[in-house]
Design a protein that fits this description.
With 252 residues, the chain is an alpha/beta fold. The protein has helices at residues 15-27, 41-50, 55-60, 69-77, 83-86, 104-114, 133-137, 142-159, 177-189, and strands at residues 4-10, 31-36, 64-68, 125-130, 163-169, 192-197, 209-215, 227-235, 240-243.
Length: 252
């Protein structure tokens, strides 16, 4: 509880980790607020069904609060009323149509979604973001994005004793300085980093990439180095196989 997990991908797609955490927390009986900025609800629902979870059922019983970023953006850009505006609330992505990149409305949405009510029996609140880099593409300033994450950490991790899982895309050779600034800042504040990278040698049918698991011991102010484990992985239809480097089934 109270942990911040950063999912980082470079030269590959790390969304399989988002699907894992989403189904994992829903099965565990946690209240989940999912800021889905990259794909539609039906996309996540189809993948979740393969993993044995129904997002539609979770949303109906109030366990899952789902923000469909693609739809909200279109509604704002083309002047249509969003679901929130119909109930008198500002749209969580209100900053798109304003001159100042203020993510307060998005934070208010998260806080309202995860603050427990008297009838709640969920085990703990979880904020899941896929993916944070999209906010920069929509015009939010790096400082505004980092402020948003900071406030979410205080509200979700410190006050509500919940967890936050955030996916960011990164490319160390990229000229997108704003994105790299956000990624590097988040790395310094994370309790756990799952860094997925494509193979340096290129595409391989039996090994889809490499994952670096970094447990941030240094955050706890001990005089120890962070624990780093490196595995390779292969994504299958309903699960992912992990193995030590050079020990894939194709090699053995």
């Amino acid at each position: 509880q109270g942990k911040f997990t950063l999912l980082r991908d470079t030269r590959t797609d790390g969304s399989f980790l988002v699907h894992h955490f989403l189904s994992f927390y829903l099965r565990a009986g946690c209240k989940v607020c999912f800021l889905a900025l990259l794909q539609s609800f039906s996309h996540y629902n189809i993948v979740a069904q393969k993993l044995g979870v129904s997002l539609a059922a979770a949303r109906e019983r109030g366990q899952l609060v789902f923000l469909e970023g693609l739809k909200s953006c279109l509604d704002l850009l083309f002047g249509e009323e969003t679901e929130e505006e119909q109930t008198g609330q500002p749209s969580p992505l209100q900053f798109i149509s304003e001159s100042a990149s203020n993510l307060k409305a998005l934070f208010d949405f998260v806080q309202t979604s995860l603050t427990p009510t008297s009838g709640d029996s969920w085990k703990g609140p979880v904020l899941l973001v896929d993916d944070l880099s999209v906010l920069l593409s929509l015009g939010a300033a790096p400082v505004a994005v980092l402020d948003f994450i900071h406030y979410c950490r205080v509200a979700v991790c410190s006050q509500l004793k919940g967890n936050i899982v955030v996916l960011v895309h990164s490319n160390e050779d990229s000229e997108d300085e704003e994105n790299e600034l956000v990624v590097n800042s988040l790395c310094h504040h994370s309790d756990l980093i799952l860094w997925v990278e494509g193979l340096a040698t290129g595409f391989c049918k039996d090994v889809h990439g490499e994952i670096k698991i970094i447990k941030r011991v240094s955050l706890e102010l001990r005089a120890e180095q962070d624990h780093v484990q490196i595995y390779q992985y292969k994504i299958q239809d309903k699960n992912v196989t992990f193995f030590a480097r050079g020990l894939s089934a194709a090699v053995l």
